[in-house]
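Blackboard transcription, Thursday session:
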Amino acid sequence: MEPSLNGTGNGTASVKDSLVLDKVEKRYGDFVALEPTDLTIKAGEFITLLGPSGSGKTTILMSIAGFVAPSSGRMLLDGRDVTALPPERRNFGVVFQGYALFPHLSVYDNVAFPLRARGITGDAARPKIMAALEMAKLGAFAHRYPRQLSGGQQQRVALARSLVFSPELLLLDEPLSALDKALRKEFQTEFRSIHREVGSTFIYVTHDQEEALTMSDRIVILDRGRILQIAPPAELYERPATEFVAGFLGKSNFLRGKIASAQDGQVDIHMPGFAATANGNGIAAQAGQAAVAALRPEKIRLAAPAIGLEAVSCAVRGRVGDITYLGSSIEVEVRLADGETLLATVPAGQRSFVEGEEIVASWAPDAAILVRGNEASP
Amino acid sequence: MSAAAATSTGGSERLYWLMLLAPCVFLALFYLVPVLNVLVLSFTVPKPGLANYAELAQNGAVQRVLWTTLRIGAITTVLALGIGYVVAYALLQCGPRERQILLGIVVASFWISALIRAFAWVALLQSKGLVNSILLSTGLIESPLSLVRNELGVIIGMTHYMLPYAILPLYTSLRGIDDRLVPAARALGATPSQAFRWVFLPLSLPGLIGAGVIVMIFSLGFYITPAILGGGRTIMVAEFISVQISETLRWGLAAMLATVLLGAVLLLVMWLSRFMDVEQALRK
Amino acid sequence: MAALSVPSTPNGISLNRIVAWLAASFLLLPILVIIPISLTPERYLSLPTSSISFRHYGSLATDGRWTKSIVDSLVVGIGATVLATGLGVAFAVGAWRLGAPLARRLRLLLLAPIIVPPIVHAVAFYRAWATLGLLDTYLGLILIHAMKGLPFVVLTVAGTLANVDPRLEQAARSLGANPRQAMGWVVLPQIKAGIVAGAAFAFITSWDETIVALFVTSRAVNALPRRIWEGLADNIDPAIAALGTVMIVLTFAAVAISTLRSASAKA
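(Written on the board underneath:)
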């Protein structure tokens, strides 16, 4: 069951697929929790399902775990159909939201539980349990009960318990949502290092974009029961496919207008007060169409109005509105003549701004990215 | 997100459905069928028709029994609620130690069998009983008072039995009232009695109704206490039904009265379910 | 919070509390009178005047009629408790796990034996048991008492289950336990206390049940309440007071233990 890089069949260098979701769908009566979804998870990767509540991410996770039976579609594990397999025979580890530790069992017995269910008890189980406890830094707590542990320690027990039987796949359902910010940071690093150590596939569900960006090899963005984009974190941030993705992951300005021309992967967009060039982002675009481009606030430069700047294709004149000091940076609202506003984030300490001051915002020609609008998505 | 509730993976569901349905089948066969049969009997014995129900309008004895049942049920309910409310209110005010002792007494008396309690009341209240002996020996009365084998005895015994049934739900309900509201009313200028009447009492009304319905339900069908303390002179409907079966063998009349009693109780339960969770109310 | 609560008079003695203690004395009064009666040396109902005697306690243990009734009550009580607990736990766990609207409606059916007046039960079971040939049999009374105890088991166990995280069962399954193992290793241990309490309620329900027993049993099965009832009908036997005293002492002990337990669990 070890994931292997030397594929048995066609000899390509690509990593073996671990789990394939083939048009998996979940309905509750008329309510669609998950539209027919395809998803291929590679062996050994750390993949995150990210989305707001109700986006279908937990439905996907619970289908993989075997607790939600898909209304239609198949799930393949190493080419084997596991759609109807009961949860206990899938051999996946699951870390539940709120941990679901057994309150009547000690830490040791919680971790021993999966081995007991597999008929491994007593001395045969002991070394595995101790190794799992060591890995989770729980050696000193083996004989405590869950209620005697802090939230962070309970998290470690849940992790040790679901890894002790060396599952191929570890499913984590918002495991950090109950912890404070400092502990969350600590666990983000730890999850990564445990992932490297054990080499299993990790499927992680969260609504926290920072968790997703820091830990994942790939992120799956979901909204209203549908996958919007699957990409590594940097690509997702730099080249969001849709308006929703751009808005959900970090802050973004949206430039709405009509396409004046499109060629060589670049589009010119005309807004009521100004025009701008945007990266075409591989989206089929024709002159005359309505279009939306995303522009990250930190890509905008602010400068005093001077002759010549307006000649740059991506620049617009406005007045300084609200100013928010954020420590290392300053967030400046720029009010444009047509009533729209742009949000710009500039490094602190370089220049001071006064509300009402006239200013020019400019950006590099490919800083703005053409995205699919929320209404226009497929 | 209802992943926990809507799980369905093969055999595990079957096990739980089996667990759920087996007791229901058992109850349907051995409970529901016999009880529904009573309803059938009331229309078919001694001969098919509404003759048994016509007795409600014609038979003076039946009417007297029903009136006695309603009257004693109502008096018991009012007494149990009145005393119960004050006790529940006091339980809120007193310290934890005192509360533990008082609640212990209430709960313990709740569990003592109705028979044993009826026996004790006979011993206390009969003409040569403890109460009369004390009153006679202190010279307060010349001849023994008749405290038992009449309606007074039944009311004393039933109030005693029902009091815990009133106190416990009332206490639960009063405890649920936000204890900052009365001080808030006082801070807004209300006198203590105004704060009670305008704020606390209205908030406790659902609990009061709930406790009242529970006491009424059990009072209407009560058998042991009225039979022993009524001494054959004050007859409530349950005892009357039993006489019809074991002595006069009028099954149709007994089944009709049982159906009427059951209908009244079910109506009260349905009404109760509008004010509170019936399961909560029945939990001991 | 207590300081904020409904104002009382400064010295803490209010009319309410006086009424509360009077009500408590009223509740205790029959108990207080039963204990001395049980110690009377006479054969008839009286208070001991010159000396006390335990002869009525003795007759509980030696008089064949009392011993048979005690044994009958224990047999019926234990049988009914086992049946009610098994069925009640199965139902409560099934309803908890499935959470279906149907389960909620079925729960009302299971609660019926508390709500339906006992005299209605008496009429119903007298007829039905005569047809089935169950009159005056242990099995007949055990079945009835099991049905009367069932709602208390369901209520108590459901109350405990409400605090059990349904994800525990899922966690057990994800860790490799099959449905039966998940039930035995994870769900049932969580609700042990509720099951014990429910079983105790079921046993007490059977132990106290009088009215239906009066109708469906006669000579062969003569449980205690029926025996007491007969004792009250003819000449009142002080042995009833002795029995009552034993039961009162047991009740108070049980209440005290459970109060202390819950107090120490909170601490």
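Lecturer's comment: Chain B touches chain A at residues 1-4, 6-12 (CB under 8 Å).
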